[in-house]
Amino acid sequence: MAAPARPAVAAPPVRAAVATVAPRHAEAWPDAVVAKGSPWQPAVTGWIVMGLLFALATLGLARLRRVPGFFQNLWEFTLEWVENIAVQVLGDDAEALLPYFFSVFVFVLAGNLLGLIPYLASPTANTSTTWALALCTFFLTHAVGFRRQGLGYVSHYFHIVDASHEKDLLGKAVTLVLQWVMLPAIEGIGEIARPVSLSIRLFGNIFAKEVLLMVLAALLLAFFQAGGAAGWSLMVMPLVLRPGILVLGVLVSLIQAAVFMGLSMIYVGGALAGHADHGHDQDTGGMGDGAVPAA
Q1: How far apart are CA 136 and CA 122, in angstroms?
Q2: CA 57, 59, 64 angle in degrees (round to 5)?
Q3: Phi first, then psi: what are they for 167, rounded to 5°?
Q4: At what angle do helices 236-277 and 183-226 cross, to 10 degrees?
């Protein structure tokens, strides 16, 4: 004999509120802020970042003083910090490439931090922005490589091994396949993976930070709407966690901006140093293995 069906039990008010409010907020992400529903949202927030940077630059650098104020000191400290890293990675080429790396760092940092402001979203939490930034580094890497070495820049893909050094026929045949097919293909995949990793790493970390803040805000609103003793007591959890997530968001934003800039420097430095690794233009010095030009 079948058991009688149990009557439907209404969900507790807190659970019901979470079930109705949180999904609605999750579906609205990331369009619940500026430029809602527009595919141009990353561009709009990106222009907001550039506007804020321009305003900060005007405040700090419009009137330079011997004793710098807060904003001037902030810009000078950031520039010196980026320059020191660039000199260590790029050597004598750091000065020419410093404007790009400094611009990348401050834009990525400001873009990462923008999402911490209510009603705004980080442009770097969208793959459109991170792909654009990663492709800038990708094209710069190969542009400086071709400028330094000319068409010989491509030759390093085919000189990882050299079939001419092999004596027996079998070894020469295997090395020829490695030299002209397999290893160049692997190197090509590695070159493509660089902008992919730059883009996805930055996007993943910043998007996760944004989602955590969104979830805490949704929970806070859900518990508030639920009301009652349970709802009001549960509101303490997101209220306590949110300041910690904000601090963590600042740290993640700074670290990811530095990582993006540092990896970009390494990729560009590798392209500049390739001539030294493969025996081209030895008299130019470069940064290969920390070599310095002869006196």
Answers
A1: 19
A2: 85
A3: -95, -50
A4: 170
Burial class of residue 250 (count of CB atoms within 10 Å of its CB; 0-12, 13-18, 19+): middle
Which position has the higher pLDDT, 134 or 183? 134
Could you identify the residue written with the tokens 């392209």? 271
- Contact predicate 245/212, CB 8 Å: yes
Flag whether 254 is in a domain.
Answer: yes
Q: How far apart are CA 160 and CA 155, in angstroms?
A: 9
Prior bond to 30 cis, omega within 30? yes
- pLDDT-based confidence at residue 206 (cuts at 50, 70, 90): very high
- What does the longest C-alpha to C-alpha distance in the chain come to? 99
* Domain housing 127: 41-149+199-277
Evaluate whether residue 213 is within a structural domain. Answer: yes
Count structural domains, the chain.
1
Q: Which of 21, 28, 93 is nearest to 238 (CA)?
A: 21
- Distance between CA atoms of residues 249 and 5, nearest Å: 49
DSSP 177-192: HIIIIIHHHHHHHHHH
Percent of the chain with pLDDT over 70: 77
Is 284 among the domain residues? no
Residue range 98-131, pLDDT digits in tens: 999 999 999 999 999 998 888 888 999 999 999 9
Q: What is the pLDDT of residues 132-167, one digit of tens each?
A: 999 999 999 999 999 988 888 887 777 666 666 667
Q: Which residue has the tokens 């295997």?
A: 174
